[in-house]
Amino acid sequence: MAAPEAPGVGPPAQDESIIREGSRIILDVNGDRHVFVVVKGRNKVKLGQAFCSIQPLIGCPYGSTFGVAPDGKTLQQIPPAVAADWLEEAALEVTKNNSRLIDAGDANQQLTSERIADLRSQGVHGSAIVEALAAHSATFDAKTEFSQAKYRKKKAKKYVITAVARRATAAAIAEAYFLRQPARIGHLRLDALALLLSLAGLSAHARPLVLDACGGLVLGAAAERLAGFGTVTGVYMGSAPPSREALAQFDAGRVQSGVRHASLASLLRRVAAGGEQATPIGVPGAVEPAGGGAGVGDAGKAGTGTTGEPETGATGEAGFGAAGDAGTSAAGEAEASGPSRCGDATTAAPPSPQRPFNACIVAAPGLDPGAALRALLPLLAPSTPFAVYSPWMQPLAEAMHALRAEHAAVGLALQESWWREQQVLPSRTHPKMQMNHGGGFVLSGTTVAPPTRSAGATLA
């Protein structure tokens, strides 16, 4: 019979900085492509033209850099790239000029494609191929130092494939989706997501209510913010929750276990059922756990393919229609037609003294934000901070006006997130040319105890 463990003594905690079997990671390929990967011994990932086994990733720390081995079938860990010598030379005075160079296309390159293919088949490293291309270019020596650096960088993206193993955090997932498929997360940019979490007052032991139609990204970010101290309740309208493919990409198990799903109608019925005899909201018996609802289980398969492109779950990329509808409408249609109305959701249940949530986030571009807030108010305690995201300013302005007219909230503020990526290099620091101009708008405020009124009243 085994001796009992001493109090407070348990199995040693695993090092969370190490990639392990079954971990979910994001491979940042050459800084401009992101691949969602589940680390399992037999899985493969496509990098360039090669399908490589991800077995070498197991046991390596997060942030490690990998490249394609000479055999073209496996990944090998390489030291982080250091600043190239041309950066120091670029700080010197530039005397060359590109104005007399003639762009003759392939005629300026003496190294043929057949020769390049032969070098790659021999296992020559990509950096050597880049230098060979520069040496055989008829115009390379005449270019300025800046142009030479751009030439090397352009060729390196094709012949030097490097991938950084990043932890699947809310910031990394938001960046990956926004770079390639922003419509799947409602065009929610990283800075707007951070603004939502901050203005809603999310912290440990909070009881947040989240209406998320952005692929589950906001749900996962809220659970990550709680760090295991609390449960996030994801509310949805209709008979089934929308796609949660972004939520399935989070690595931490406590993020997945810290999210519960429930329909708005069921929550309002529990509140109306009354008081302390009703099942407490936010416990496993009250609402569906993450992955238990329709359309959520299949979302776990998203993004684990070899191409790195996330796949849509069983419910598709769904948004919300009217609350009385049996199903949900596609997010693309909702985005094209503008915000829709919640309909009868505002009359599902009268307000009740039992208001179990003390934080609220609404991130549903396909819904009218004013009607959505009015539907959620019976579930929110007085003095609850809330934040509402929308890609458009007008719906939030109308909701702000209605809330102010009804005296339903105080401290109302409508703001736009601001984000500019800068290229920081000697003598040429400037905003990046392909930056996104806007990250959406956020309406924030604090609820107050509502006056006695009929259950059928609406913001409109």
Q: Can you offer a commentary on this structure?
A:
The protein has 460 residues and is of the alpha+beta class. It has 2 domains: 96-154, no CATH class; 182-447, Rossmann fold, CATH 3.40.50. It has 12 helices and 17 strands. The strands form 4 sheets. Strands 11-10-9-8-12-13-17-14 form an 8-stranded mixed beta sheet, sandwiched between helices. A 5-stranded antiparallel beta sheet has the order 2-1-7-5-6, with helices on one face. A hairpin with a 2-residue loop joins β3 and β4 (50-53). α5 runs antiparallel to α7 (217-226) and α11 packs across α12. The longest helix has 15 residues, at 145-159. The chain is elongated and about 80 Å long. Residues 1-12, 82-92, 275-287, 289-353 and 454-460 have low confidence and may be disordered.
